[in-house]
Design brief:
Number of strands of chain B: 12
Order of helices and strands of chain B: EEEHEEHEEHHEHEHEEEHH
Distance between the termini of chain A: 25 Å
Helix content of chain B: 25-40%
Strand content of chain A: 35-45%
CATH superfamily of chain B: P-loop containing nucleotide triphosphate hydrolases
Radius of gyration of chain B: 18 Å
CATH architecture of chain B: 3-Layer(aba) Sandwich
Structural class of chain B: alpha/beta
Number of domains of chain A: 2
Oligomer: heterodimer
Shape of chain A: globular
Largest sheet of chain A: 12 strands, mixed
Radius of gyration of chain A: 21 Å
Strand order of the largest sheet of chain B: 6-9-10-3-11-12
Number of domains of chain B: 1
Strand content of chain B: 25-35%
């Protein structure tokens, strides 16, 4: 195959771990002491410690959302999770200074190589903290900031404090509260007015420790007329016990700015992946989420855009693949708050075997607005009869000056289609993989080359593995 | 040994026997036509040869160049060199013809062998040129929204690219107008050669005006009841399948 092995994060490749000595280990369980431990390890200012403790109270108060979401959430045992693990050092700017076992981890995942090839900057997070963080010098000269969350709050409070926790308030949901209490790592990015990044910035999130919770926090601010593309990848080894990944990602696109946020997740089957992602788009700004969810035990993720300024545009393009034993509960939220705002949601889900896909959408257009448009398409593909797919679109549109379009389809890969492809020499897995790739093909064409190649490879592997 | 040899094949579907002691040998270098009325088991034969899992084989054997193919997975039989042109080819939405054939060829490669994409496209366009297929055709999704003629052309293109040792054409002429029929026949004629055996399954003699067979077999109620030269097809056309039925009734009584 003519593959540029640009982003090499296949499932088997990610399935390894090193025994690492952690300088800081907050132990299992979550209490105010845990938070004090984290704050001390990070040498945080008092206001952050206060912010965390308030969030802990909110987390404890809010119920699990099992009245609408899956009961599987009840299987998360919060007191068995380790909330902070780090080797106690600042992220290196050179791979040479990264501790050996951590460096080897990222080398096996191909990160340094990708950085040389096509990235403007990389942050590599190992459990709770970034081990490596570097951006091209020329971008630094232009005033671009790309640092970890702790460093961002410490060094640039005048920039980041204004939006931190504003797009997604602590009490948005139980897991955003949890993240706010124990967040560590993630990226804080600021792109000054008019600066357009030609190459993407990338973060790579790696879980190495068992029974661990990763709670990265990302805030990206594109100032007026700025443009940035951010990509994230993630892996974890297969453990016997479940692992929790609960991130909060806030994007702010000021007037005329463009942000593109791309995720290709490839979690192992024991990861609860409960992530809150939302953006603000001011006048004429554009925010596009590209979200590919492969792997994990349960993913709940509904990237959203709040269209705050006239002519703002929001887009969510998502692909979810639920294999045996997996539940992908994903979707999108579009909140129109200004005239002439447009939003576009395209969701494609694939359910294989006993895998389950759920689409939840929310489109909100109040009646005082004019000239707003939303287009929602959700397509589901079922392979094998046990697969399950549900669609819950909530479209709340008032007023006559707005337009909404909604299309949904469910299709199946039939045994006869598989037979036809096998008669041409393809194995059963190859045939299913080809059908799935055909199903998502029109979306994948919009992805950057490196990610479309990677996504195709992940689909191939998932389908090969699903043949009994 | 260089032949497709079907011996005393008994097979059916859902507990119903359809092929009854069916025997037929197609040597390389020959084109055989298999004719018969509807419901006599022609398509069942095609599916059984290709290894379709819904069909049950009770007894018999199918040797391809001396090797048993019954019991093999459909993809293995295909890679071993048997191509089935479908009566009703299936749609694969979002997958272009070019990518589909490419995937089929890659499935035949050894592990680690590199695929020569430029050479592949040169060969693909060469074949399309010979088959008088427009270049844009290979960018369309496999069979999606195709007319009957386009579907059959797509089958012939796949066949010529995969270069199988044996081709089974299941009612390839059904639903074709005369122009499409000529294109398909032209494709089959181009594939004729000493290294290939071809079995053309058809209900009508019409296709055989353009593909002149070396042998004609008449199938009735799960087995071959007549074999002869190409003239047999004409005789059948003239007298109709009732002739076969009446003659069998006479023999039985």
């Amino acid at each position: 195959m003519s593959q540029t092995d640009a982003i090499d994060i296949d499932r088997e490749k990610g399935n390894f771990r090193f025994d690492v000595k952690y300088e800081y280990d907050a132990g299992t369980g979550l209490s105010e002491e845990t938070i004090d431990y984290i704050s001390k390890a990070k040498d945080e200012e008092q206001w952050i410690n206060d912010f965390r403790k308030r969030a802990l109270k909110v987390f404890e108060r809010l119920p699990m959302p099992t009245h609408w979401a899956t009961k599987d959430l009840e299987n998360i045992v919060f007191e068995n999770i380790r909330y902070y693990l780090s080797q106690g050092q600042m992220p290196s700017r050179s791979w040479d200074d990264v501790p050996d076992e951590v460096k080897e981890t990222f080398e096996r995942l191909g990160i340094p190589e990708q950085e040389r090839k096509f990235l403007a900057g990389v942050e590599a997070q190992f459990d709770s903290e970034a081990a490596y963080s570097r951006m091209q010098d020329s971008l630094e000269d232009e005033g671009v900031i790309f640092v970890g969350s702790s460093e961002g709050l410490k060094k640039y409070p005048h920039i980041f404090k204004k939006y931190f926790g504003k797009v997604i308030p602590t009490n948005d949901n139980k897991f955003s509260a949890l993240n706010s209490a124990v967040f560590s790592g993630g990226s804080f990015i600021y792109v000054p007015p008019g600066v357009k990044l030609k190459q993407p910035l990338q973060a790579y999130f790696r879980i190495n420790a068992e029974s661990f919770g990763q709670f990265e926090r990302t805030l990206i601010i594109a100032d007026e007329g700025a443009e940035v593309t951010y990509m994230e990848g993630c892996t974890a080894p297969k453990f016997e016990t479940s692992t929790l990944h609960s991130a909060v990602v806030e994007l702010v696109a000021l007037k005329g700015a463009k942000i593109q946020y791309i995720t290709v997740q490839n979690w192992s089957n024991n990861v609860f992946n409960l992530v809150t992602k939302r953006a603000w788009a001011e006048e004429g700004a554009e925010v596009k989420w590209i979200d590919c969810n492969i792997g994990s035990r349960l993913t709940m993720k509904y990237p959203g855009v709040v269209l705050k300024g006239r002519k703002a545009r929001g887009e969510v393009i998502s692909i979810a693949l639920a294999n045996d034993g997996q539940h992908q509960d994903t979707g999108a939220k579009m909140v129109h708050q200004a005239d002439d705002t447009t939003s576009n949601i395209i969701s494609k889900s694939i359910s294989v075997g006993k895998g389950r896909s759920t689409y939840r959408g929310l489109v909100h257009m109040p009646d005082h607005l004019k000239g707003c448009k939303n287009n929602t398409e959700c397509d589901a593909l079922l392979i094998n009869t046990n697969s399950r797919t549900d669609t819950y679109p909530a479209i709340n549109v008032q007023g006559n000056g707005n337009s909404v379009q909604h299309e949904a389809s469910v299709s199946k890969v039939s045994a006869e289609q598989i037979f036809y492809m096998m008669q041409r020499g393809l194995s059963e897995g190859e045939a299913m993989s080809l059908a799935v790739n055909g199903f998502v093909n029109d979306l994948v064409r919009q992805f950057p080359m490196e990610y479309s190649v990677e996504l195709k490879r992940l689909i191939d592997m998932e389908m090969e593995g699903s043949v009994g | 040994m260089s032949q497709l040899e079907i011996k005393n094949l008994n097979a059916g579907i859902a507990g119903q026997s359809i092929l009854k002691d069916f025997s037929l040998t197609v040597p390389k270098g020959e084109v055989h036509a298999l004719m018969g009325p509807n419901g006599t088991g022609k398509s069942t034969l095609a599916k059984v040869l290709a290894g379709h899992e819904d069909y049950e084989v009770e007894s018999g054997s199918v040797l391809m160049d001396g090797e048993e193919i019954l019991g093999k997975e459909p993809d293995e039989v295909a890679r071993d060199g048997l191509f089935l042109a479908f009566q009703y080819p299936l749609e694969i939405p979002g997958v272009s013809i070019a990518n589909f054939i490419r995937a089929a060829l890659q499935a035949r490669q050894e592990d680690g062998e590199k695929f020569d994409a430029p050479a592949y496209y040169r060969r693909l366009y060469e074949k399309m040129n010979i088959l008088q297929i427009d270049k844009k055709f290979s960018a369309r999704s496999v069979n999606e929204g195709f007319s009957g003629g386009e579907k059959k052309r797509c089958e012939i293109l796949q066949m010529s690219m995969l270069e199988p040792s044996y081709c089974v054409m299941d009612e390839t002429d059904s639903g074709l107008d005369i122009d499409a029929l000529k294109i398909v026949a032209n494709g089959v004629n181009l594939m004729r050669g000493p290294d290939r055996g071809i079995l053309v399954i058809t209900h009508y003699q019409r296709l055989l005006d353009y593909i002149v067979p070396d042998k004609v077999h008449v199938m009735y109620e799960g087995r071959i009841v007549h074999s002869g030269e190409k003239e047999l097809a004409l005789e059948l056309e003239e007298k109709g399948y009732d002739w076969v039925r009446d003659e069998l009734a006479t023999t039985a009584s």
